[in-house]
Write a structure and sequence with these properties.
Layout lengths: L3 H5 L18 E4 L12 E6 L2 E6 L5 E3 L4 H6 L4 E4 L1 H4 L10 E2 L5 H6 L4 E5 L5 H4 L5 E4 L6 H11 L3 H26 L5 E7 L2 E5 L7 H7 L6 H7 L4 E4 L11 E6 L11 H4 L2 H4 L3 E5 H4 L4 H16 L3
Parallel strand pairs: 4-5, 4-7, 5-6, 7-8, 9-12, 12-13
Antiparallel strand pairs: 1-2, 2-3, 9-10, 10-11
Helix pairs in contact: 6-7, 7-13
Length: 310
Amino acid sequence: MKNLKKTLLPFTIAALALAACGSDEESTSENTEPAEGSSSEETITYESENGPIEVPADPERIVVLSTYAGNVLHLDEDIVGVDSWSASSPNYDFGDAEEVSAENIEKIIELEPDLIIGLASEPNLDQISEIAPTVTFTYGANSYLDQHIEIGKVLNKEEEATEWVEDFKQRAAETGEEIKAEIGEDATVTVIENFDKQLYVFGDNWARGTEILYQEMGLNMPEKVKEEALEPGYYTLSSEVLPEFVGDYLIVSRVADADNSFMETETYKNIPAVQNGNAFVADAEKFYFNDPITLEYQLEFFEENFLGNE
């Protein structure tokens, strides 16, 4: 996928909505006739952004078309089909699940799903929703943690999802206090990523650990980053101006098979954060998403690099 949005945010496909608002949607359980395509006898009603949808109370064959595979996997559900971006992530183990896409209707039918989850921007949703109950979300309509709770509601595991969210917020906040005590209350942190000979700097809601650093830990974003990347989510820049955006600490989400030559330039090497040993390099494939599995990995990465905790 060479489209910029797909590349920058592989877990969104067409993520242009940037509002991170909480959701007060509720799901209710009731015994009903099975939804078409469902293998479960009992269903619940999920109040989706498009209205109520009957979904299996205990889904057995879930297809995730994009973005939310890590959320589903964390809730210990059975995924039979998953998007290619998620399938390639080293953070996940989908077992025998097959790669799927919204463009390949026949493949989805072959997998006989009883529940389908994806983005509201997926193509062919009218056809896909005839295969099995289909729940979609507009990216950014929920904050990254509220989104996990919403997935929990869809899967009839709201309590489990909520418990994890509350625990994670507490642990991340505590780690943030430790980090601020180590690096100073006023220290600034920048997150960048490289792809296709371009560099991108991120705001506070575009994965790559930004939600943890800025939202949960309360670490500071450099003013230049705040001006250019906070509202849109990311900003494209050249290696020549990179020093203007780098704070006291730098997180490099590095794409292994991309052009990383910028890290060999004198411009990069002379950045104070780099010279001071305050540049931490992460595997971009492990940093792309913001589901619980990825968030746990990111939190551990920050603990190890900022605090030296092994």
